[in-house]
Design brief:
With 1022 residues, the chain is an alpha+beta fold. It has 33 helices and 31 strands. The protein folds into four domains: 3-31 and 352-542 and 843-1004, Up-down Bundle (Multidrug efflux transporter AcrB transmembrane fold); 43-133, 2-Layer Sandwich (Alpha-Beta Plaits); 134-180 and 264-342 and 546-648, Multidrug efflux transporter AcrB pore domain like (Alpha-Beta Plaits); 181-211 and 232-263 and 699-786, 2-Layer Sandwich (Multidrug efflux transporter AcrB TolC docking domain, DN and DC subdomains), CATH 3.30.2090.10. The chain is 52% helix and 19% strand. The chain is elongated and about 135 Å long.
Amino acid sequence: MTIARASIERPIYTWLIILGCLLGGIWGFNSIGRLEDPAFTIKNAVIVTAYPGATAEQVATEVSEPIESEIQKMGEVDNITSTNRPGSSLIEVEIKSTYDGTELPKIWTDLRNRVADAQLPDGAGTPYVNDSFGDVFGIFYAITAPGFSDAEKHELATFLRRELLAVEGVADIEVSGLPEEAVFVEPDMTLAVNQNISPSALAAALSTADSVVDAGGVEHGPSRTIIQRPQGDDTVSAIAGLTVGVGGEVLNLYDLANVYRDREENPSLIIRQDGKDAFTLGIAGLSTENIVTVGKRVDERLAELSAEIPFGVEMSPIYQQHIVVEEASDAFLQNLAMSVAIVVAVLAISMGWRAAVVVGATLLLTVVGTVFFMDMFSIEMERISLGALIIAMGMLVDNAIVVAEGMQVAMLHGKNGRVAADEATKKTQIPLLGATVIGIMAFAGIGTSPDATGEFLFSLFAVIGISLMLSWILAITVTPYLGNLLFREIDEGEHDAYGGPFFRAFGWTLNLALRLRWLVVVGLIALTAVCFNAFAKLPQQFFPDSNTPLFFVHYKLPQGASINATSEQMAVVEDWLDERDDVVSYTTFVGQGATRFMLTYSAENANPSYGHMIVRTESIEQIPALKADLDAFGAEALPEGEFRTKRLVFGPGGGDPIELRLSGNDPEVLRTLADEAMGIMRGASDNLTTMHTDWREKELVLRPIYSTDRAQTAGITRDDIASILQYATDGTRGGTYREDDRLIPIIIREPLDSSLTLMDQVVYSTAAGTFVPIEQVIDGFEFIPEDTLVQRRDRQFTITVGADIRDDVTAATVHSEISAAIEAMDLPIGYSMAWGGEHENSGEAQAALGKQLPMSFLIMVLISIVLFNALRQPLIIWLLVPMSVNGVVIGLGMTGLPFSFTALLGLLSLSGMLIKNGIVLVEEIDLLRHDGLELKPAIIRASTSRLRPVVLAAATTILGMIPLLTDAFFVSMAVTIMGGLAFATVLTLVAAPVLYYIFFRKQGMAEERNRHARDLATGVPA
C-alpha cells in the first residue's frame, strides 16, 4: 500500500497530520520569538589599557605591542587592530568565523589569561577586557529633565535603572551622557608656597581622607565582630575642613583653597535630544526572551512609574526594538498572507476551485506547520525566516500541484480517487523527494557558511529545509486525501486531458523546436554568452540600505578640537533640522557614538572632535531628499570639519563603503602613501565624496624643553614638571568623593581666574623640600606636530583611507573604477596594501559561501545521478542551470537594481526550482519511453503533461513575489527570482526537451528500428 492510498484509507492518520500542523502552527505563532533581523554573533572583544603621559607611538610600541604579541599566540584569532592615543591603548580582537558563539566563553577566558601574561612598562594600568562588546540595547530612550540639578538627574537615572532591571526578561541597562561632576580644590598657590604645601601633598591628604580600609575585628567567645572604619562625612564642606599637616602645623583645607562641586568643563560625552540636554537609557533583553514581550513589559512598568517620575521629565524613544519588530513581523505576515492568497487565486483560475482548495489547503498547512517547527528549533520569526517562506513558495506549491494534477488527469479517465492518488504519487514521489532535497541543498552553502553573513542568513536555509520537506510529506499524504474528497470521478473514455487549444499550441511549438533543435541550442548559447557578459556589468552590492526610517550624521573637526567646540558645531546642524518638517526627531552625541541599539550599529570610538546624530524621519521615502539637503548644508555651513551622512544598512559588515589599508613600519611613509592614494582615487572616479584617513590630522603638542643640568641640580624630575603642568591645566586627581553609589572625582587645579601662565608655575622639589620656579628648570616650550591617533593591524602600523560614495552608485562600481590605478601604486619594500570596506565584507562572505557551495552542488549532482541511475539525464538538467542567468540579467537590467548578496540567494533558489522541474520532466519522459512510447512522442507528451504544473508553479511564484517588491532587503532577490523563473520556465519546457532529443536521438532511432524489427518478426503491421 502506498503512502497516498494509506492516507485515504486510514484518514485518522491524515487528520492527525492536519491537526498537528494547524494546532502546532497556532501554538507556534503565539509563542515563537520575534526579531526585526536575525541575530548574529559579534566575535570581537576590546582591551583597554591606560598609560598616562605616554605619546600615541609610545602607547603603540610599549603597551599595544606586548599585548598583541601575546594575543597573536591564540590560534582562534583572526585579526588584531589597535587604536593608540596619548595615554591609552584600545585593542580590538576579532575571532575567526569558524568558531561559533558557544565556543566564545572559553576563548575569552584564554584571551584574558594571555593579556594578563603581557609584560607592560611601569606606569601602565591593568588591561580591561570587554567581551560584551556586542550587547544590543534595543529599547533606547533619551531622557530630558530641564531645570533639574546634575545630582537630581543622577538620582533619576539610578531610580529608572533600578526599577527597570527588575522587569522580567531585562538583561542589562546602560546609562550614558549623565552630567559629569567633580569636587574642585583650587589652592591659592601663594599661600601654598608660603606654607610649603605642594599639590601632591594635598592629593595625598585627600586620597586617604575617605578611602575604604579594613579595620580588623575582635573575638569574644565563639563569635567574631567586624570593626569598621569611622564613618566619613559625605559633604563637600567636610572635604574643605580636612586638615593638612606640614612642618608640625595643621591647616584646614579651606584656609588655603577654594573647594566646591561643579560640572566638569570638558566632559567625555554630551547628549542632546531635539536640542535639549539629555542622557540615554538603553535596555537589553535576555537572549532567551521574546523582545516584543519584554518591550511591552517595560512599557507597562514605565506607565506604572509615571506617577513617581517628577513632572517635567520626558522620555523620548530613540529606537524601540519591540515596536519595530512587531510592526515588521506584522507587515511580513501580511505579505505572506498576500502571497498565499495570490497563489490560491491563480490556482482557482487555472485549475478550478476544487484544485485550488486542495493545493491551497496543503500550502497553508505547510506554512503553519513550518512555524511550529521553527518554534521547536528556536528559529525566531524575523525578516529572513519569513522571507524564506515567500522565496520557497513556488517549490512548496509545486509538490502539491504535481500530485493534484496527476489525480485530476487520472480521474478524468474514470479512475477513482484511490487509484488516481496511487498513480499520481507512485511515479512522482521519489523524483519529487529527490528534487526537494536538491532544492534544499541549493541553500546549504548559506546555512553552513561559518561567517557572520552565514549566521545572519542561517534561518533562510533552515526554514526552506523545513518547509520543503514538510511540503513533500503533505503532498503525498494530505493532498491525495483532500483530492479524493473533492475531485470528481469523470469517465470521459479516450478523451485527451491535454487536447485543449493551449496544450495543442504548446505541442506545435515544441514540435517545431525539436525540428529546429540546433538553431534553438545555438540561439540559447549565444543568448547566454551575451547575458553572462552583461551580468559582469551589472552593479554589484553587498547588502542594501535598511528600510528603517533613520539615518546618521558623522562630523569630525580637525584632530585636537575640544568637545565644546564640536558641540557648538553640532548645534548649528540642530538649528537647521529644527526648521525641517520632514524630521520627526534627532539625537546628538558629541565625543563618541551612541550605545549599540541595533546589532548592525557600531559606535565610533571616543574622540572630543567627533559629533554624531541619529535622525529619524516619518518614512524612508523622505530620507534621500533630506539627506541630500543636509549634505549640502553641512558642506557650506561647516567647511572646517568633515561632514558626512550615512544610511543604515541591512546585515553584517561595517566601515566605509570604500576602504584601502596601507601597512608598514614608518608612520611618515604611511601618511605619504595615504595622501598619494587619495589623489589617485579622486582622479580615477567622480563618484567619491568625502575622503579621510583613520589617523586623522597631526596635533600640535606643547612640550617643555627640559634643562637637564639645572633641573637635576634643583632636584626636579621630568615627572615633577609634568605634575605641575597637569595641575595648571586639566587638574590633578586627588581622591574620590562618595555619594550613595556614585564615585565623584576630586580634582586639584589652578583657579580658573588665575592669570598665571605656564612659565609662571612653580615646581615642588622633594629633594630640596621647597618650590622652584619652572623657568629655572626648563628652557621654554616648543610646539611639535605629532600623531595622536595611531592605528595598527596585526602588529603593523596601518593607515586606512576611507571614502564615501554618491547615493546613486554602488561601492562595487566605484571599486572597479579605482582599483586598477590604486593597485598600480609603487609601494616601498616592506609596505603592503589591502582593500577593506564593502569589497572586503562582500568578498569574505562570498568566499565563505564558495567554500560550502562545491560540497552542496556535489550532493545535488549525486542525487540527480542516483535518481536516474544514469549520466545523460542529469547532464541535460545541469546544462540548463547556467542559462537561468539570462532571465536574471534581463530582470535586473530592466529594473536597474544591483546584483546584491540577497540576489545571489535568489539565484540559488532559482537553480533549485529549475533543477526540480527538470527532474520531474525528464523522469516523465523516461517513464513514457519505458512504457513503449517512441522518443519524440514521449518528449512531447511528457512536456505537455508538465506544462500546467510548471507554468502554474512559475506563475504562482512570480506573482507571490509581488509583496516583496516593496521591501528594500528582498527587492533584488524578488526581481532575480521573477525574471529568472520566467525564463527558466521556457528552459524547462523547451530547452530541456530539445536537449533530451539531441542526447537520445540515436538511441531513440535504434529503439524504433528494433521495435520495427520485432513487429515484423511477430507479424504486427508497422
